[in-house]
Amino acid sequence: MSDLGLPAELLELLCRQVDPLAEVEVLLLLHRTPERAWRAEAAAAELRVDARTTARHLAALVAGRLLQSEDDPPAYRYAPASPSLHAAVEQLRVLYDTRPVSLVRLLYEGPSRAVRSFADAFRIRRAE
After folding, report:
1. How many whole angstroms separate alpha carbon 10 and alpha carbon 94?
2. Cβ contacts of residue 50 below 8 Å, gap of 6+?
3. Superkingdom, according to UniProt (predicted)?
4. 119, 26 in Cβ contact below 8 A?
5. Of 26, 35, 38, 122, which has the fewest CB atoms closer than 10 Å, so is most exposed?
């Protein structure tokens, strides 16, 4: 698979937001159930993984503006900060469902420098 064949929004998400496959799976779980607020323990049980690691992934996804956190202890809900982030997650879901080996390869080999440069060209800059 040529990583340059992926949409810019998805490249940006993979380069900047989501890294390990476990984090992708947490994100997609919440994406599939946007009406539900998930606690780390419940998401971990659903995915059959460690709750502490899942809590770290959830916090990273909040920092990446893909989820919102509410209450104490926190519950997480899929809530991307922009339509382009939502579009990128949709593209990620399609890639995960249709080309999982390509996704795993891209996540673990890392996108090439050319892909990072290409994704940077589409990055929305925040006013400072």
Report:
1. 11
2. 44
3. Bacteria
4. no
5. 35
Do 87 and 9 contact (CB within 8 A), yes or no? yes
Q: What is the value of pTM for the model shown?
A: 0.74
**16-39 per-position pLDDT tens digit:** 655 578 899 999 999 999 999 999
51-77 in b/e form (b: 16+ CB < 10 A) is eebbbebbebbeebebbbbeeeebbbe
CB-based contacts of 44, cutoff 8 Å, min separation 6: 50, 51, 53, 54, 55
Phi and psi, residue 111, nearest 5°? -65, 150
**Domain-wise residue ranges, the chain:** 3-121
Q: In this structure, which topology does domain 3-121 adopt according to CATH?
A: Arc Repressor Mutant, subunit A (1.10.10)
d(CA 39, CA 44): 9
φ and ψ at residue 69, rounded to 5 degrees: -110, 140
